[in-house]
Amino acid sequence: MRLAGALLIVLTGGLAGCATLQHAASRHGVALTEASWQVLHAVDFSQTVTIARQPGRYHEDGIPTRWIIGEHPGEGAVEACWAGLALLHLAVTRYLAVRADRGRPWRWALYGWEALTLGDSAVAVARNASIGLQPFGPHRR
């Protein structure tokens, strides 16, 4: 039930954020990259839930995630961390998108933010898949 609540909060926040990004994003093309990051983030979340469910088999190795939730996190810690990161990413993207009209440095900051975070999430998901992490793996026994 906690998982459903966390996902509802993230999705609700994401939908509201998409509406606020629409105007600035249409000029800077970030709505699609933000949506892509949120999808990759959701897949990474589902893989990290598997880590929480199978602590004897997997451990969190991502930096800084390991520092925040530990090597063997509980599902609640994963849910809270991933919900917070989703909202933080959306807020930073919105902040940069609104300021991107002010000049080249803000535009480059926006594009750099999107490229770096998309790349990082894609690598994390691919790495997780390469070691056999399946989305929402089996529950603890």
Total count of domains: 1
Please give the share of residues in helix: over 70%
Largest beta-sheet characterization: none
Average of pLDDT: 83
- Measured distance between first and last alpha carbons: 18 Å
Beta-strand fraction estimate: under 5%
The overall strand count is 0
H and E string: HHHHH
Instruction: Based on Cα principal axes, name the global outline.
Output: elongated
Low-confidence segments: 6-10
- Helix-strand category: mainly alpha
Radius of gyration: 16 Å
Question: What attributes characterize this protein structure?
Answer:
single chain, 141 residues, mainly alpha, 5 helices, 0% strand, elongated
Notes on the structure:
The protein has five helices and no strands. The protein is an all-alpha fold. The chain has one domain. α2 (31-53) packs parallel to α5 (104-130). It starts with a helix and ends in an 11-residue tail after the last helix.
